[in-house]
Write a structure and sequence with these properties.
By secondary structure, the protein is an alpha+beta fold. It is built from 4 helices and 8 strands. Strands 1-2-3-4 form a 4-stranded antiparallel sheet. Strands 5-6 form a two-stranded antiparallel sheet. Strands 7-8 form a two-stranded antiparallel sheet. Strand 1 and strand 2 form a beta hairpin. The chain starts with 5 loop residues before the first helix and ends in a 16-residue tail after the last strand.
């Protein structure tokens, strides 16, 4: 998508927004710092089922985690009363990713940060929010790679072999679905201990 200028952004922004000039300046400022975030106008569906045609910033925020850069996909919705109220923010994973719930991200991918809870314009703005997201997601990434659909975790003990010195080992699965090991010595008798416990 070609770079947008202030005039193009103003044309894009729905007329319902009360602070059009200020929003356009903020969007332009963010896009000059973060080239992978683009404005999009789409329908936002609220929890009560109502929809509104709203502006959002969609794309990726670069994050440094364990010494490498990752691009975290986000979608930041601006309500028509922005900047009086904070954006509604989501992690927007691709098909290869899944949301990791954590301190700042719920199972739906919605982001909840102290920065959003304490939002107060003009001290709070989009550029500041994105900078906070980059720091927070660098400490606690909100997405991970989705495991292949047919992968089934295999318990470690299924691939484990007892050393020959242990004699004969049997794996017993009881009616309570727990797995127990019995160890037999070289004489074929069960190895038992005075302090044996059922753990």
């Amino acid at each position: 998508m070609a770079a947008l200028n202030v005039g193009a952004l103003k044309k894009m922004l729905p007329k319902r927004y009360k602070h059009r000039g200020l929003i356009v300046q903020e969007l332009f400022n963010v896009m000059s710092h973060y080239k992978c975030l683009m404005p999009v106008v789409e329908n936002y569906v609220f929890n009560d089922g109502n929809t509104q045609h709203l502006m959002n910033l969609t794309g990726t925020v670069p994050v440094h985690f364990i010494g490498k850069q990752f691009n975290i996909p986000v979608c930041l919705w601006l309500l028509d009363s922005y900047p009086r109220i904070p954006p509604i923010c989501f992690v927007k994973p691709s098909n290869e990713m899944m949301v990791v719930t954590g301190q700042y991200t719920d199972a739906n991918g919605q982001i909840d940060l102290p920065y959003l809870q304490e939002w107060s314009y003009p001290q709070s703005d989009l550029l500041g929010l994105i900078q906070v997201l980059a720091v927070v997601f660098g400490e606690e990434p909100p997405v991970c790679i989705r495991p292949p659909p047919n992968s089934i975790p295999v318990p470690v003990w299924e691939n484990w072999e007892a050393p020959e010195s242990w004699g004969k080992t049997e794996v017993i699965s009881s009616s309570d679905k727990e797995t127990y090991f019995t160890l037999k010595g070289e004489d074929g008798l069960l190895i038992r201990s005075e302090n044996e416990s059922d753990c």
